[in-house]
Amino acid sequence: MKNIYLLGATGSIGMQTLDIMRNNPDKFKLISFSYGSNIELAKKIIEEFSPRCVGTGSEEDTAILKKLYPDMCVFAGPIGLFVVATYGPGNKYPNLVVNALVGSIGLEPTFHAIICTRDIALANKETLVMAGDLIKAKAEEKGVKLLPVDSEHSALWQCMNGEDPKKINKMVITASGGSFRDLTRDELKNVTKEQALNHPNWSMGAKITIDSATMMNKGLEVIEAHYLFDLPYDKIETILHPQSIVHSMVEFVDTSVMAHLGTADMKIPIAYAMNYPDRAPIANTSPLDLVKIGKLEFKAMDFDRFPCLAMAYEAGRKGDTYPAVLNAANEEAVALFLADKITFLEIEEIVRDALDRHEGVKDATLEEILEINEAVRVEIRNRYEMKDGK
After folding, report:
1. Same domain for 207 and 172?
2. What is the reported pTM?
């Protein structure tokens, strides 16, 4: 039995995590969870799983849930995320925090969960992008495992099982190319939000779907892989693979290549992290049928076509607080695009400007990283509010 502390329960990864738990009631117990705004879905989760603690997105929801469930701990906002990640009941059973949050909001609860010596099933790539050095050092100090949930990093992790990390020649992360993979730069000038949200392979939240279209998502994954597997950026390659069947590959010094293949189903990497070091059957999944697929395609990555990916490599190589700035600027730019305030191509312009303005801070503390994150966001928001004449 594992105690599960689920951050972001009502999102795509969170709901699939609950589905895995639903089909394995003898293996997992939901101790706490957080959600943003869907109180009706939160109430259904409470009724089904009987958690002891819930973090909400608003004081209004907190008041409602406290009245409905007086014996349950309920907290709002960032404090709620902190409490959900660090809540009891101790170490009678293994404790696993599943971080399914999207964005920089996932950093602080991860950090505090590590301090509580809880292993982390990490779907929140921003945690390592923003504070990779800090998180890795604290995890090593506390003896905590960081278990990757992203399909690409789970694939790399599984390819590395039983292998000597010193014998890696390179890691290869595949990219579908997102919603606009077949469009030229000129054709991107007038694309719409609705078109950007129509991913050809995966069903994901709005932010990550836009990141897939700009290829920033792949850039964040490159930075995350750097920290998860202690590899220099020159040994982390990205290639286009439209089918999303080969999730990642590892090439060794003898030129042998280990590849992880699977259907485009996030329950597979989620279940692997939750069951690790074991494997277990997954309900309602379809096996991979290579005969039906027929062929697999791979193409070289074009960094001129996808400048966000190039900027991610640049920020990662610079290190210090540049990746945090990259992430903050991108989150704000995507939010502006989703609010119909900027065009698709302006996303990369905003990120480029933020990186050019920044002077990196070496060995930044958590507080300094969070301050830089907020400062970048405020500057971008203010600039576009003035642009709109508000």
Report:
1. yes
2. 0.94
Final residue of a domain: which of 102, 122, 149? 149
- In whole angstroms, give the CA distance from residue 188 to residue 302: 15
Secondary structure element (H or E) that encloses residue 356, with its range:
helix 346-357
Structure token pair of residue 155: 């694939």
Q: Do residue 139 and residue 18 come from a single domain? A: yes
pLDDT tens series, the chain, 390 aa: 899 999 999 999 999 999 999 999 999 999 999 999 999 999 999 999 999 999 999 999 999 999 999 999 999 999 999 999 999 865 566 899 999 999 999 999 999 999 999 999 999 999 999 999 999 999 999 999 999 999 999 999 999 999 999 999 999 999 998 888 889 899 999 898 889 898 766 666 789 889 999 999 999 999 999 999 999 999 999 999 999 999 999 999 999 999 999 998 999 999 999 999 999 999 988 899 999 999 999 999 999 999 999 999 999 999 999 999 999 999 999 999 999 999 999 999 999 999 999 999 999 999 999 999 999 999 999 998 777 655
Pair 140, 228 in one domain: no
**DSSP letter string, 112-126:** HHHHTT-EEEE--TH
DSSP for 77-89? HHHHHHHHHH---
Q: Which domain holds residue 231?
A: 153-265+285-387
Q: Which amino acid is at 215?
A: M
